[in-house]
Write a structure and sequence with these properties.
CATH class of the largest domain: Mainly Beta
Shape: elongated
Low-confidence stretches: 22-27
CATH topology of the largest domain: Immunoglobulin-like
Number of domains: 2
Order of helices and strands: HHHEEEEEEEEEEH
Number of strands: 10
Mean pLDDT: 84
Helix content: 25-40%
Radius of gyration: 26 Å
Number of helices: 4
Strand order of the largest sheet: 3-2-1-5-8
């Protein structure tokens, strides 16, 4: 194949790859890239941002690879003649800087919009359900305010017996997050959500679980000797089963 033919073939290949990649941006069937779709109200907001960031990274990666390998393949030394020398190209440098700035600006805009949705929290009175989460060395306490007051409404786990956080399907839950001792991180990976639990500080989080089942949770801030054992399980049940669970706590 002649050099010009090789150049055309390479450009067609790269162009086809970019077209397929960009076409995938419009497809609702695009992979979750490590996360399942529709598990929580947070997934609905975060997953498109996660997918878009990977697609943007893929496009930049392809263009960067093209910029690296094109001169290697098609501008190899053909004679002992010294190539034309130049110091810099202002147009290229300004263009590359502008493109990088636009990419960062677009990603920042989508991130800010997603963050404002995720961090929106209703007042305690307006929320459908209220649960207090307290991080302790080295486990968790879950207090179901819907079940009333008293020690029976608090579920306390231990490293040996991690607690279970029961949530109603499709109903928003407002969480009040605190810590009993040091910094911890309340993290449910499948739901694409995490929030710090800090001593002396109340953080708030609100979301709805949208699929029945059990999901692992853990602390994602190094908090001491048994940090790796700060585990819990999220159990999503029907609203009727959730009310039954609350009644069980009240009865206890």
């Amino acid at each position: 194949m002649s050099p010009s033919g090789a150049k055309k073939a390479a450009l067609v290949t790269v162009g086809s790859g970019l077209i397929l990649l960009l076409t995938g941006c419009q497809s609702k069937n695009i992979s979750g890239l490590g996360y399942d779709k529709g598990l929580s109200s947070v997934n609905d907001t975060t997953l498109p941002l996660w997918q878009g960031a990977w697609i943007a990274a893929g496009v930049v990666g392809v263009l960067t690879a093209l910029a690296i390998f094109y001169p290697i393949l098609f501008n190899r030394q053909k004679s002992d003649e010294l190539p034309r020398q130049f110091r810099h190209n202002n147009k290229v440098e300004i263009s590359l800087t502008a493109i990088a700035f636009i990419i960062v600006l677009v990603l920042f805009g989508f991130t800010a919009r997603a963050e404002s949705k995720i961090t929106h929290v209703d007042s305690a009175a307006a929320a459908q359900h209220n649960i207090e989460v307290k991080g302790i060395q080295w486990s968790w306490q879950f207090t179901y305010n819907d079940a009333g007051t008293g020690p029976s409404t608090t579920v306390t786990g231990t490293p040996a017996q991690p607690p279970t956080l029961v949530l109603p399907l499709g109903e928003k839950v407002r969480f009040t997050l605190t810590s009993n001792d040091v910094d911890h991180g309340f993290w449910i990976p499948a739901f694409m959500i995490q929030m710090q639990t800090l001593p002396g500080v109340e953080n708030h989080l609100q979301f709805a679980a949208q699929k029945l089942g059990t999901f692992p949770g853990r602390c994602n801030i190094l908090c001491g000797r048994n940090h790796s054992q700060m585990l819990f399980t999220v159990k999503v049940v029907t609203p009727a089963e959730y009310q039954t669970y609350l009644s069980t706590l009240k009865a206890a």
